[in-house]
Structure prediction request, 55 residues.
Amino acid sequence: MSTVAKLLARKQALLERLESDPGPNEREEIQALLAQIETALNLLDPRDAAGTSDE
Prediction:
């Protein structure tokens, strides 16, 4: 599994946790993790992101 795929899978899991109505502290933690994932995805080399369609 590529880095992009792992990040996207982690993002999906966190979004599902948000849907389960977590408490305020957990919500803040999840949102911080989502922000980190978004930053990582934005920083990845576009060639890495393009390679995920082959897997």
